[in-house]
């Protein structure tokens, strides 16, 4: 509250981070607006475009002048016939001049057409975007497709214009050429030869242009089948980590004692699967005064004057995050640095409010967006282990995207070059048939030979085409996806992780034994493939059979206990609170076929995490079924292996007493058992079956019976405690792989020989989560 009674934000002593974002009040009103593009100022943008224009004029103008010199010098002189020439040397000189004139005239017109086609193909995407803005704005996004076709358009238009220019400048003047060569009209060999080659080249350029359109459609279709949500989420995650890392080093600069180990691992990250704990060579060169990052950044300043640009700036925050998340260990170090610098002292979870306090009041929406990207499970807060898992998984997904792009480009380029080679071979065949008369005599033989080769290599061709259709059009998976493969001969699926794709085969890794499996795409096309990674949050279904006499009260208790387990604070980070429990069948009227479905909060592509969560839920289900308890189907049939029959001799009173004991024990094991009101948790004793042999007094007998009951009670409690500890151990989530410093402790006394701050604990004793002491503002 200010002195006037109005509510206002109270700022801390630290300055706001990056006032240029979301803070319009921090800019003076009299300053001129700074027009910027993605990487530089508006003036530099104009200069770059002007440089491209000058570059175009210099290259095309220089070559055009060279081609125009013979045309201008020779000119269109009158042709002198051979009989009118003074001598043969004059006639041959005229022939040479006219030949050079016609050829250079044709080349000059072709070059001008090429320049016009280049300008037209370069400007067509932007013209399309401008027209679509007013005609149909929904089609503006297709301008990139037109931009991709600029080279095929330029080649096709240039070859067509060259053919037309040759017809106009040379072929239509073949009568004059016949005069200067002193030959009959139509018998100038090189004129018809070039004309035929240009005709065939124009046809080939047309096929090439059409094929490039088809390849563009295939490429668009292939990438449209990719998981765009995964790519967009990876970009958002990278931007969020970059912004939060900037805020972290703003609060705790690199080299702060609290983050010495983390900064070492982050600075030594090399986008490789190892080496974070080793000192890089650049560190030693820097000690000698050779700063490679500084030298590279010097050249990066020529590309952009914007300090936020990451082009040729390997020490920028963008590049640092890119290198760090490539390896799980350095990614975990980055996650620890961000989490501990954002979370205030005394808290053990990261929330959107913590990020907003660091970024400042004018970037609350931005802070909420960053936290939403990090909180994939929508829990509302993040523990340190969850932050490490999230960042490590984000790095793995980003590396898989890069590998998928590389494999996709390899497959598409291979298919493109194979089809272009086939098209070129067909065109060469027709050209040879047309120009080599001897081939016409063996044309029928070549046809039969082609048909024979088709049958011989038909299986290989079918294998190649089936792989092309499977990879480029079906596109059932990407690199790093986990899939369930069902073949027609097997009734059980195989869990696989995609390692590498090709037009002919795909390499997988089995989840169960982690062995590599290579399968042909032709065979995979006949299998059913379930992509687990693309399916989002997955569900787990458990089926079991129970006794048909089970009461509905027990079923209701089973459902309520499972729902309570899912909604427990310790489990809300692993499962969604939605539970489906249903009776799906009755068998032969002797059992209840039950099915329980629970949804995990994350995807099953992470096998250790999936197995741990599945084990945790199954242990809870087993514990609840034992607590009720639920009986197996048909429990009363005598003679079964689970209910054997045996005979003993006893009196009617003993038999009656044993039956009552069995009923009492069964009732005591039920979840709804209510003991006597005056028991006060004392062990129940029964003196009816106690033998009085030995002359013991009643007090001694009661004392011994009570000791035995206390012993049994203690053993039962110990077994329950051991069962609970084993259940918790089975359901424990796996940790993120680490290297370098030991894990930070969350309680107890700080380790010896440390500074004022060591991990989660400040020296002095009180356990705390983060390290941030003063927020940037308080609401």
UniProtKB/TrEMBL annotation:
**Disordered, as annotated region:** 666-693, 709-779
Query: Biological process GO terms, please?
Result: intracellular calcium ion homeostasis
- Pro residues composition bias: residue spans: 734-753
Q: Which InterPro entries match?
A: Msy1/2-like
- Per its UniProt entry, which superkingdom is the organism in? Eukaryota
Task: Keyword check for Protein transport, yes or no.
Answer: no
What does the UniProt keyword field contain? Membrane, Transmembrane, Transmembrane helix
Question: The Mechanosensitive ion channel protein Msy1/2-like transmembrane domain covers which part of the protein?
Answer: 46-222
Q: Where are the transmembrane segments?
A: 53-74, 100-128, 149-172, 201-220, 417-436, 448-473
Recorded GO MF terms:
calcium channel activity
Compositional bias segments (type: Polar residues): 754-765
Q: List, alphabetically, the Pfam families matched.
A: Msy1
| Residue ranges with Basic and acidic residues bias | 709-725
In Swiss-Prot or TrEMBL terms, this protein is called Mechanosensitive ion channel
Query: Which species?
Result: Triangularia setosa
